[in-house]
Amino acid sequence: MAYLAESGRPAVVIAASGMVSGGRVVNYLKRMLNDPRHCVLFTGYQAAGTPGRDIQRHGPNGGWVMLDGQRIDIRARVETVNGYSAHADQQDLLNFVRRMRHPPRQVRLVHGDPHAQAALKAKLLEWAEGAGHSLEVTLGGDFLAEDTIRSRADHTLASPMAR
To answer: Which of 81, 91, 116, 153 is most buried (most C-beta within 10 Å)?
Structure first.
């Protein structure tokens, strides 16, 4: 990494769908984002609210990003190549559920942007109604809050102090 950053030679940093929220890529980017000779190439989705999305969004406009509490000016070229993500899209997920021999009674959506979760929930419920299946779809935040409340209640009931 030091060699690439200090050699004066151009370099390309390839960041996978890790959202640039940790790991070795953060160290590379802290040292190389401010050099216009470099290029950052994202090969997948970068979620909203992550450094990866900030770099994608603000990089082409000469913006900046916070990495490990440091403001880093983005002078490197920033590119995104779509189509290399291992994540299924909405249609793939709908087809997965539709093809189940025994359709689920409950689906918990715990990954993805809130608007994408809500759209998938609506599509799943529309399919279930049309197919005559009873289906409950819980979104990530709802599930986590529900699980936390249930966990606290279970802990209280199991606690020796509660007896």
So the answer is: 116
